[in-house]
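Work Package 4 report. The design task specified in the project plan requires that, given a folded chain encoded as structure tokens, an amino acid be chosen for each position. We show below one input record used in the internal validation round.
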């Protein structure tokens, strides 16, 4: 027997993206976004409410960064998801985050979060909240790289959002090889 829950925005896993932008005065803003994913080889999509300071900022500057939230940064990552830059101008500093300007786009990188996508704005629809961004670059701090220079998720410790329990969980262990394990059933 299956239990029906009705229409809910539930999938597993949902990302914990930290979207960072510059305010008009050049100070950084950041927000937490779970409704998003890749929508083409070099494109990312997110559903962002039009009232967010982030949306005003990314439309004004045509750019934003998307950092992966990490297990050891849960508190500031949640904080930027519950306080708006519309009301708290010093939000990023209060979170304890420090930023460095991206070399690729007009948006800040959060120093405490090791992996980020640097993006320009392709389109935004205020009615649906659908944002599409062009991924200009992906960067990662050396501290999360493995011996081959690749991003190591065991070092990065990205967290995912559980929308059913409103919880953050750390990404689990490897259980298979993509585009490969299914071949045994061919
Ligand atoms: C776990 C979590 C996930 C969230 N996901 C989204 C999302 O996908 N889209 C959205 O518009 N807001 C989302 N929010 C809410 C924004 O992060 C929040 O309203 C934030 O304060 C907006 O900041 P800003 O006004 O400074 O841009 C999420 C918040 C949390 C805590």
């Amino acid at each position: 027997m299956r239990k029906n829950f009705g229409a809910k925005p539930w999938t597993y896993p949902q990302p914990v993206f930290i979207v960072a932008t510059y305010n008009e005065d050049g100070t950084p803003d950041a927000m937490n976004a779970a409704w998003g994913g890749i929508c083409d080889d070099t494109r990312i999509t997110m559903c962002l409410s039009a009232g967010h300071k982030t949306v005003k900022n990314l439309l004004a500057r045509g750019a934003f960064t998307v950092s992966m939230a990490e297990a050891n940064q849960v508190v500031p990552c949640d904080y930027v998801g519950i306080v708006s830059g519309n009301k708290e101008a010093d939000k990023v500093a209060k979170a304890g985050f420090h930023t460095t300007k991206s070399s690729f786009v007009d948006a800040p990188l959060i120093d405490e979060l090791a992996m980020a996508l640097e993006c320009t704005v392709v389109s935004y629809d205020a009615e649906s909240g659908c944002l599409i961004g062009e991924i200009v670059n992906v960067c990662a701090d050396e501290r999360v790289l493995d011996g081959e220079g690749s991003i190591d998720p065991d070092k990065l410790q990205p967290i995912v959002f559980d929308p059913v329990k409103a919880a953050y969980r750390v990404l689990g262990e490897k259980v298979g090889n993509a585009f490969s394990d299914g071949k045994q059933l061919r």
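The helical segments are 53-61, 74-82, 91-95, 153-156. Validation will be extended to a larger panel in the next phase.
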